[in-house]
Structure formats: C-alpha cells, structure tokens
Amino acid sequence: MHALTNRSKMVSDKKMTFLEWIYLPAIAKGMFITIKHFFRKKTTINYPEETREFSKVYRGLHVLKRDDQGRERCTACGLCAVACPAEAITMVAAERKPGEENLYREEKYAEVYEINMLRCIFCGDCEEACPKEAIFLTDRLVPSDYERLPFIYGKDMLVEPLDPNMRIDVSARQTENLLKFKQNKQFAHNK
Amino acid sequence: MDWTMYIYKTIFLVIILLVTLLVAMYSTYGERKVAAFMQDRLGPNRAGIFGLLQPIADGIKMFMKEEIIPLSANKKMFILGPSIAMTTALLTGVVIPWGGTLTIFGHEFPMQIADLNIGILYVFAMVSIGVYGIMLGGWASNNKYALLGSIRAASQMISYELAMGMSIIALILTTGTLSLHEIVDQQQGMHWNVFYQPLGFLIFIICAFAETNRAPFDLPECETELIGGYHTEYSSMKLGFYLFAEYVNMFISSAVIVTLYFGGYHMPFIDHIGLSGNVATLLGTFFFFIKVFFMIFLFMWVRWTLPRFRYDQLMNLGWKGLMPLAIFNILATGVFYYFTELT
Question: Is the CB of A42 less than 8 angstroms away from the CB of B42?
C-alpha cells in the first residue's frame, strides 16, 4: 500500500535495549521537545484586540448599498430572497411617494428588509442574484448574542450609513469581471 | 526559650503558612500558564494584568458553588477527608529550614519553626497521614469511582513510600543526621547531596511525583477512567481543599527536595562575597525560593510532557524497579563508607 505521509513507522516487538528500558533518555528527549515549545511563538490571536487578517473575498455581514447620491439601491424585487438557499431573507415592498426621490433610487423600495443571521449561511448567492448591485457581503463579522431575536437584522443594521466617509467599501467584491458576469444574458438569473 | 522566641515563632509560623498558601495559589496559575506555553497557547490572561488575578477568581468561584453532601455518604468522614488532606499538607512546612539565622538586637532568630532532630521522619509521618485524607474522602463518598480512586491512591502511595524511605536511608548514611537543619549546613559550598547521591535523588524525585499524585502518576484522579477519582462527589470548597492540597504538597515536596539534595538556602559563591549576617541570610532564603520554584517548574514540566502510567506499569516500576534499586543504593553507599572509613 502506498503511504500517505512518510512519517509512519513499522511496529516491531523486538526486545528493548537497556537505555530504552529505563526510559530516561526518552523522557529527557520528550522534555526537550516541550521546553522548545515553551519558548516558541504562540499561535493564539487575542480576538477582540487583534483580529485575523481576512481574505479579500471574505463573506461576512451583509450591507445594503446606497448609490453615490445616497439613495437606496434596493428595489425589493425579491430575487435575493428567491436565490437564498437558507430562506433567510424576507422583505416587504412599498411604493415611493413624491418627495422621497432623494431617499430611494427607483419607484419601488423595500419598506422592510430582514435577514435572519442564524439562518444565513453566508454563501453569497444574494449578491450574485441582485440585479441592482444593492446587496453585498463584507468582511465584517456578525457579533454574538445571548438571545435569538437580535439576530434578525433589519434595515437599520443592513443599510450603509449616509455619511460618505462611513460608506462600506465593497470594491473587492465588485470587480470588472464580476460586473461583466452579472450583465451576461446567457445566465438564467440575468434574463 | 524566652518570650521573644515564642512571639517570633508565632509570627514566623503565620508568615510561613501565608507564604505556603500564596505559593500554592499561584502554582495553580503557573500550572495553567506552563501548560499553555508548552502547547503553544497563551493561557489565562484576562483576569487582571497577565491574568494574575485568575487564582482569586477561581477561589471566589469555588466559594460560590453549591455545597453538596451526597445522601448516602458518611457525613463525618466526608468532611474529615479534605480537612486531613489540607492539614497534613500544611504541617510539613514546620520542619523545613527556610533560611539561616537572623540576628536582631542581639537575639538570634533561626528561620525554621522547629529544628527537630528527627526532621526527616516527621516529614514522612505527615506524608503518610496525608494518604488518609484521600482514602477517607474516597470511601465516605459511597461512590464506585471515588472508592477506586482512593484505593489506587492508597496502594500507590504505600508502594512508593517504601522506595522513598529507602532512598532517604542512603542519604542519611552520607549525612549522618536526621535533622534537616544539619543536613543543609553540611551542604555548604558546592557539596550538594545530589552529587553524592545521584541515584538516591532520582529515586526520591520519582517517588515524590508519585506521592503528590502528579502526572505521570496521577492515577487516583485520572479523569478519563475514574471521572474525577477520589473527589468525584466533592463540590465547592471541599473540592477546592483537595485540589489546593495537591499544590501545597507540590510546594512542600519541592522544598524538601531542595533541602535534602540541592543545598537548601546555600549558594556556592555567596560565602566569598563577604556580606553581613542578616543580608546573607535573607539572600539565602531568596535563593532557596528560586530553587523551590525551579523544582515546581520541573514538576509541571514533567506533567505536561509524560503520559500517564498504566496501573500495572505503576506497580511494576514501584516494586520491581525502584525498590531493588533503592536497596542497591543503600548497599553501595554502605560498602563505600565502610571501606573509606577503614583507610
């Protein structure tokens, strides 16, 4: 049989030599190994103070983007909810009233937009399904809680702030290739 | 003995008690840190700076826990168990010489509570009584696992006490005294007993590991086989006493090892500096504690390196390995002194 690693050793029941029998050299060897680890760099990351570096395409907490004039991009089409394999997204659509043009980009908008973070599996299908470039997954984490209810995130948690300085950067997940892919009509969801 | 001596002894007794408890307390912290560091982790670092308040937090937790005495347990014995374990662990510190002699206003104050002329025998007596704490607790719990754990503890301690006592006989042959204070004074300079009795030292330290129920001899409380061993049924501060007694024992046996084999409070170069009496004495105590801390570290180092013995291996090592070796050591020492005395 072919060995997976070359670390396996053949077992034998040969008689131990005297040095092996008294075990002391083996114990000294073992203690040398542990003391080497004692002075080795520790692998622990002190979480709240330090965080691990995320990959560029990390899929964490969602954001509902605004356009450059600060209007919500989402039109409550429901494609994300349909695409969601965990059925975590629900929304209620509403019609834009006259005078709200600075708030919503199109005539229809999401009055309620909720993602259940306990159901969400962070697959990213919602952002792939979105035709309006409205929803993205970011490198932020969903904080833990003691109860279940706070995990249903509404628009207050998801829509990005109006302040241009506090906008959430999603450029890593909105590349040229991705845009081209999304506009390609040969894929079913773009039709 | 005049009245200043009585006051001094009382104060010194309290100091030693507090120091013992403090060291034992921080040994629990040290144990967790050493374990973590050897496993490439950081260990407790949240309670206070570097996690230094962790033992206090643990202590408060122990106090706050519900005190449970099982219905079927023998109540008196159940309470007596941890009390004996803790008391005997603390009593041993009485005969250990913690330092030389302090001279204050013409009075001489030895840094030892009781300089018994049979100091070593006293240590052994206390260690033997310590087994009762574990045995009573395990038996009174009326629980299979606790009983098994205590039986293991009893047989293990009895087996290893024999070899330990015999390794000490060889040491007594070289020193010619049972008083711990005299044994330390004979080791002045670099005449540490560990160089005269290397085999005896090896046997003694292995038995010390077994006597304190530390890995690789922690069979009485091996979690994987016996749930908790002899303290399965214990909760709250009674459990705390058992766990704490283990660390007190570790500190005291480290102190005994240092006293017997590593020259106690003597340091080889200290006599040549020419310091005045009191400073040299305090410095000696400081060195004593450094040696003790290194021994405690060794205890932990071994615990986090070696796996636990199987029960038959334990008995094999004790009766077929260490016992004959200890007897051989006595014989060799005796023969050596017989012939060197002749010439």
Answer: yes
